[in-house]
Design brief:
2 copies of one chain form a homodimer.
Chain A (H helix, E strand, L loop, with lengths): L4 H10 L10 H10 L25 H10 L3 E3 L7 H8 L12 E3 L4 H13 L4 E4 L16 E4 L6 E5 L4 E5 L4 H10 L16 H6 L7 H4 L2 H4 E7 L5 E4 L13 H4 L8 E8 L6 E9 L2 H15 L3 E8 H13 L13 E9 L2 H17 L5 E4 L3 H12 L1 H8 L1 E8 L5 H14 L13 E9 L4 E8 L4 H7 L2 H8 L24 H14 L13
Helix pairs in contact in A: 1-13, 11-13, 12-15
Protein name (chains A, B): D-lactate dehydrogenase
Pfam family, one (chains A, B): FAD_binding_4
Family (chains A, B): Belongs to the FAD-binding oxidoreductase/transferase type 4 family.
Chain lengths: 536, 536
């Protein structure tokens, strides 16, 4: 095989160019924001659990007591808000979950949160904590008439230490606001999400958000140094440490990271923020097998080491969906001289543009010499940077345009990741519903696999003509079974919420579930906080 | 001020040299091992708590039952071991803590650990889990006659995935063994300790060990992906996930990280291992103030970014102790042309030697141009690499040679770190016991401050003529008070064990302590596991 032309051409050009895309730290953020967030569609899950009679029904007496605590309280009970106004809080952004709460409280201080919880606890009123309401599993909306405790007004940055990089801020601070604040000081929030313009950092921590920077900066379990939490009975737990090292007892804060508001309300976080990379690069490759993708991943880690910031992959089915979508929108670009069965995207972020380019050139040359890739393209400017990222980021949107999508977000060991997609195809083929293979008009048009290779996070999109019980029964619970067989997770980053709570048994064993229930009861014996979800 | 000569000379030489020290990944490990581990001396703390009558006294019946479970059981009860042989397990390596256990069980499998715990739980026998027995706070030795469950025989590497970098290994694997195994594959264990030749990775996780690589790779709360734990009642909890992302419930494993064997016995860990850096550099600077150290720390983070692997500091009192110790041992080296009130050590570890040197040169030039340092020295070869590290690593040993040392390991925000040392000096001066200041023969000869600047981890060494009540009463609880005033931790990395358990109130508030007690009771209602320690 001849050396791929694109790469050969680009590799020689690489060292001479000066990357416009990496001239300032803020440009990165702009680039990311300019890209459309990945919209996620999730089907309506099982029937919602019934309302618990253990919880009181909110009355005007309750409302008046809450208004005395927090002036920023809205309710349909006294017409301070219309039912339509409360819909913003009752419904999720996908318009999939619809709560029936009559009261929204928006406290301005931790003390107000504490008083609200104390009152609700004493009066058996169930409460759903709500941040930016950008979740994908119905975790921040009422299932029935729970009081909504929205943290929008708790939005102050409390302190930032430029020596240690430790930021302390209220839970209701919007992620993008926090990141802009840090950017001005040359630092970066160690988490990036499509929903950054709306989501709250407290919500990010309570859902253990993953996002785009996880490969580089690790999970919030490592970067969060401390939390301030209001417990279900109103007790304020001040665990707002700014210390990187503290070995004086159980690391209680870890329980709240990813607890989805079921055992406490995060009112402030303390987090370690790294320096902002001053240089960014991105390259996309075509490859002939998933084995090749794995090999390139290993090589990328070896050559790029500490500057590797993202490693994403997608299959030819995903790429076909994106190309079709782009063609339909007037785009007609030939990206690769040689297309492949697989594609991967590599992003670097470092402190020295020349060094990063040299490392990337070294990787390109190695991949070429060893014929590990079919072709490759490297971004030459900010437009190309965004355009190459869009090949990966447009997959979910393109799938949505192609039909009704059964969408799964799972996590399995990297080596087993693509096997799940293949098993799914076999299952659908055996069921006689996959298009092709002599079945020209099967209800399933495509099965696309893509995701965060670096994190072992796989997205499977099954594109159907329409949603039918026949199709669903073939997919589920099979998809959960093969995740479980591979010791995977049925929710890599979206959480459990109300949607996946019934399926936890596919990811967690009996002992784990029993321990989780004990922890829930320990912190919230009345079960008032975010009921009907997570662990039920 | 003229540009420091050492730096000017070295900076120009820097780009032309080829670092012998960074020629292979294994050399780093060799260098570290060649350096003497930092020996830590800690005074005997408060009186030990009395034996609890709730625990059964071990009999020959118990012994026989345990021997039936695990053939590798030693006891003085049936003379399968002498009291002297059991001392290895009963005493800590500093010979400070002395247990009186008559039974040591050394299971070979997780199932054996489970059966042992099940039996002990049913029979009210208290148990102390023991790894490499290298701790500094008496956490792995019996306080009275607890049965010792030693994990030495549980020492198999279970699997390693070269694509994801995930290692799964038994808790009893020695840290150095794990790291050597990984080195052969081009990976590194994300933790390094002086005790690496003896300590167990299960013990590292259960004590949340910090060590030398924390600045670069973060804490074990971020790198540990899963655990297998035997609970106090013998239940095996398989939480041995290999996934980077899993948002399906409370992250229960986090409770065991740093729990010091009080709620479960870690029988295996799953941990994410990064690629091994192929290049290492080290430089030491003299500076005129602690403010300058902080500025250089910020500059180092900015210039070195992702390759900064250690930032250590020590004051002139520490350096004086080291120089004296070196002179007494025949060393007579002039390191700095201009000495200072403070010193800092910067280590880099990256994937490209030339790039790293260029980044370091850039930092040196910046520090020189802005007159932020008085002088600086850069290692030219492996001997110098080790010799420069020894300036920092010899501080505790040198203090020990100079007198009786009151030794503290605390954590405070970086900006407030050195203020603690100054407050301590003022306190001793006010007490009229600090040498100098018109008191030529005070019992306190020196107060030295040094530590892991990058982690906010300060060591204070107070060198006295001898240990006296008069001196101790002036130091304690004052030292804990000023740590608490600064929202610090009274134990940055050593843990609580039996030594610091009584002082937890200085670092944790009432709510935290109450939550800790609830967690302990939840997992270990009989309080059988590692009693008299941690949270009491």
């Amino acid at each position: 095989m001849a050396a791929p032309r694109n790469i050969a051409r680009l590799a020689t050009r690489l060292s001479s160019r000066r990357s416009a895309i990496s001239s300032s730290s803020s440009s990165t953020s702009t680039l990311r924001r300019a890209t459309k967030p990945i919209t996620e569609f999730i089907r309506n899950g099982s029937t919602l659990p019934p309302r618990s009679s253990q919880f009181a029904k909110a009355t005007t007496d309750h409302l008046n007591a809450l208004k005395a605590i927090s002036s920023s309280t809205l309710s349909t009970l006294d017409n301070t808000a219309s039912a339509d106004e409360l819909k913003t809080y009752n419904d999720d952004w996908m318009n999939k979950y619809h709560g029936k709460s009559q009261i929204v409280v928006k406290p301005k201080t931790t003390e107000e949160v504490s008083k609200i919880m104390k009152y609700c606890y004493a009066n058996d009123l169930a409460v759903v904590p709500q941040g930016g309401n950008t979740g994908l599993v119905g975790g921040s909306n009422p299932v029935h008439d729970e009081i909504i405790l929205n943290l929008t007004n708790l939005n102050q940055i409390r302190s930032f230490d430029e020596v240690s990089g430790v930021l302390v801020a209220d839970g209701g601070v919007i992620l993008e606001t926090a990141d802009h604040y840090l950017a001005e000081k040359g630092f970066i929030f160690p988490l990036d999400l499509g929903a950054k313009g709306s989501c709250h950092i407290g919500g990010n921590v309570s859902t253990n958000a993953g996002g785009l920077r996880l490969l580089r900066y690790g999970s919030l379990h490592g970067t969060v140094l401390g939390l301030e939490v209001v417990l279900p009975d109103g007790t304020i737990w001040n665990g707002l440490s700014k210390l990187r090292k503290d070995n004086t007892g159980f690391d209680i804060k870890q329980l709240f990271i990813g607890s989805e508001g079921t055992i406490g309300i995060i009112t402030a976080i303390s987090i370690l923020c790294p320096r902002r990379p001053s240089a960014m690069n991105v390259a996309v490759f075509s490859l002939d097998s998933y084995e090749a993708v794995q090999k390139v991943f290993a090589e990328a880690k070896g050559h790029l080491g500490e500057i590797l910031s993202a490693f994403e992959f997608f299959d030819k089915q995903s790429y076909a969906l994106v190309k079709k979508h782009q063609e339909e929108n007037g785009g007609d670009r030939k990206v690769f001289e040689t297309e492949g069965d697989f594609y991967c995207l590599i992003e670097t972020g470092g402190s020295n543009a020349e060094h990063d380019e040299a490392k990337l050139t070294g990787l390109l040359e190695h991949l070429m010499e060893n014929e590990m890739v079919l072709d490759g393209v490297l971004a030459q400017d900010s437009t190309q940077f965004q355009s190459l990222w869009s090949l990966r980021e447009l997959v979910p949107e393109s799938a949505g345009k192609a039909g009704s999508v059964y969408k799964y977000d799972v996590s399995v060991p990297v080596g087993k990741m693509y096997g799940l997609v293949e098993k799914m195809r076999t299952k659908l083929r055996e069921g006689g519903i996959l298009e092709g293979d002599g079945k020209k008009d099967g209800p399933i048009r495509a099965v696309a696999g893509y995701g965060h290779m670096g994190d072992g996070n796989l997205h499977i999109n099954i594109v159907a003509n329409k949603y039918t019980d026949e199709v669903e029964k073939i997919i589920e619970p099979y998809i959960y079974e093969i995740v479980a067989e591979n010791e995977g997770s049925i929710s890599a980053e979206h959480g459990l919420g109300v949607m996946k709570a019934p399926y936890i048994g596919y990811s967690k064993n009996e002992t784990s579930i029993e321990l989780m229930k004990k922890v829930k009861t320990l912190f919230d014996p009345k079960g008032l906080l975010n009921p009907y979800k997570y662990i039920v």
